[in-house]
């Protein structure tokens, strides 16, 4: 036995040495891929409702030449709504294939979800990101800018044919009197399917929305006003009979009401800013300079619950302020910084901010529109 052990041990040692010295074959080397070239079948896309099921655009791209089966390569089409920053792009993921199509209704739904207005053209950057299936070795393609225009899909609730919407009810200042007092109980038409307004509402009361002032034969109402939380918003419908009144909030005050006919929904939120009853304009942009009180020609006209307008001559390169009370300097509507580029044509304003509005560079006749729904203004040459 001892002799056997003496023989076998050297054999084992020799085998171990032999196999440990065997040279392994070299590991395979995979070369890097390359950024794909991204292209589209169209760059201007403006389909209509009749085209909703048609292909809006076809994307295609070159092979990034990864050292793997091409069927396992991952591609992500990134569609951006942040002006080309691609901070939070909407993404379509494709495996293996080097093309993809988008149907018009899917593209339109995406644009509408971003809050884009119907019938308005927007620039939308799109790019492709390729990688292995596990997201390793990502390559980013060139960026394509699509010029796209959302189209109106049939809204869930038919909007007013007149383009006007009014508020009535014991929750309002005018009560159930119909016709209602205008312009204070008239909504602003923001677009064809969206309306907004700022109104004084009394707690525990109710209201309706009317497409025609003075007419009780049609209305917008809710199906059940006992639904919890409905005073802050929910669903509504069009009625010729039936339906229930909207419930007012639990506290009396100013409220911003937004009405979305596209989705058949409304929201009611407290309005925490200042809404004037009247609005006047003064400044050296006028021939009487900083006169206060101002003449009647410098009183803006209220056109609904939240907008005022005035068409007036302005001197070039001057400034002005908006006043809630004629003859008083106690309060004003003004801007934060009148050196902001383009502000003479419009922008944001506030209450008792430090700077005057900058007037247009050239003198002429201008239409000034002031919107207290979102505290913005515009100045347009006439």
List keywords for this structure.
single chain, about 375 residues, mainly beta, Immunoglobulin-like, 3 domains, 29 strands, about 10% helix
Counting structural domains, the number is: 3
Strand content: 25-35%
Secondary structure tally: strands: 29
* Bulk shape: globular
Low-pLDDT stretches are: none
Annotated CATH topology of the largest domain = Immunoglobulin-like
Residues in helix, %: under 10%
For the record, what is the CATH homologous superfamily label of the largest domain? Immunoglobulins
Number of DSSP helical runs: 2
Structural class by helix and strand composition: mainly beta
Main CATH class of the largest domain: Mainly Beta
CA radius of gyration is: 33 Å
End-to-end Cα distance, whole Å, is 117 Å
The assigned CATH architecture of the largest domain is: Sandwich
Main sheet record: 6 strands, mixed
Mean pLDDT value:
92
